[in-house]
């Protein structure tokens, strides 16, 4: 009976994690460059020694359902045309590099602005990085070609720095930003493909996420019913033992 409680409780905890993940995905459905979270569940096998088996032998039974791996799904989102010369989207792999107070960060959100100092920045004020560092565009007409070359009034000022990062090295932060795990050094892409006047939308499919939300809520309710059922059975059995004592 204890095993039933543990299994149901472990399943409920795993489902709670998935509910939180889906809720966060849906909350960021309109966040440019957002990459959704995904999760893989596993059965945790616990070895149980039994008196009925010979010494040194054991049997395993599935006891817990646990979150085996939660990861960032970096699949490309759809492109949305904005017409703004300061917007840019990366085709395929890669991340824009921006300088923050906490160090270099990485993003797929290419909706940029010009700061009062004439720098190309994110809406949060982080300086977009080129191969030469901060990109100064001033007040002229900005254009970005398909290889990320930034020009002002037809004159080349820098080339967008696009970083190649393995999925498992990404660490999510706020505002569609990522850092990388300690010990990992992103590579600079030599020939990225850039689309000026576009932004990449979140790679969240609202229909898929809503279906997942409904099925996950139902699974959570099933685990709750299992816990109540096992608890009621245990309470009744203890009551019966007391009556016959």
Order of helices and strands: HEEEEEEEEEEEEEEEEEEEH
- The chain-level mean pLDDT equals 82
**What does the overall shape look like?**
elongated
Low-confidence segments:
43-53, 58-65
| Biggest sheet layout | 8 strands, antiparallel
Distance between the termini: 21 Å
Beta content: 25-35%
Count of individual beta strands: 19
Radius of gyration, whole Å? 26 Å
**SS element count, helices:** 2
Keywords:
2 helices; 3-stranded antiparallel beta sheet; alpha+beta; 19 strands; 245 residues; 2 domains
Question: What does this protein look like?
Answer:
The chain is of the alpha+beta class and 245 residues long. The protein folds into two domains: 2-74 and 204-244, no CATH class; 79-200, no CATH class. The chain is built from two helices and 19 strands. It has helices at 2-27, 206-244, and strands at residues 37-48, 59-72, 79-81, 88-91, 95-100, 103-107, 113-114, 120-121, 127-130, 133-134, 142-144, 149-152, 155-159, 162-164, 170-172, 177-180, 187-188, 193-196, 198-200. Strands 5, 6, 9, 10, 14, 15, 16 and 17 form an eight-stranded antiparallel beta sheet that branches. Strands 11-12-13 form a three-stranded antiparallel beta sheet, with no helix packed on it. The chain starts with a helix and ends with a helix.
């Amino acid at each position: 009976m204890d095993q039933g409680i543990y299994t149901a409780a472990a399943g409920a905890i795993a489902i709670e994690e998935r509910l939180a993940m889906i809720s966060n995905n849906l909350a960021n459905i309109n966040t440019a460059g957002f990459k959704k979270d995904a999760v893989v569940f596993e059965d945790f096998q616990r070895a149980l020694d039994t008196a009925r088996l010979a010494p040194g032998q054991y049997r395993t039974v599935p006891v817990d359902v646990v979150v085996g791996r939660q990861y960032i799904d970096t699949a490309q989102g759809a492109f949305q045309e904005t017409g703004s010369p300061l917007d840019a989207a990366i085709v395929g792999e890669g991340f824009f590099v921006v300088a923050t107070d906490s160090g270099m960060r990485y993003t797929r959100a290419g909706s940029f602005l010009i700061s009062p100092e004439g720098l190309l920045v994110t809406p949060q004020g982080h300086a977009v990085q080129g191969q030469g560092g901060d990109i100064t565009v001033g007040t002229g007409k900005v254009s970005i070609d398909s290889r990320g070359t930034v020009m002002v009034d037809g004159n080349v000022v820098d080339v967008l720095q696009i970083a190649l990062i393995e999925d498992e090295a990404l660490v999510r932060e706020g505002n569609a930003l990522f850092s990388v795990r300690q010990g990992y050094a992103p590579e600079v892409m030599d020939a990225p493909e850039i689309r000026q006047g576009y932004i990449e939308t979140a790679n969240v499919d609202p229909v898929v996420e809503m279906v997942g939300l409904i099925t996950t809520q139902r699974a959570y309710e099933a685990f709750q019913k299992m816990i109540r059922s096992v608890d009621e059975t245990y309470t009744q059995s203890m009551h019966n033992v007391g009556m016959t004592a």
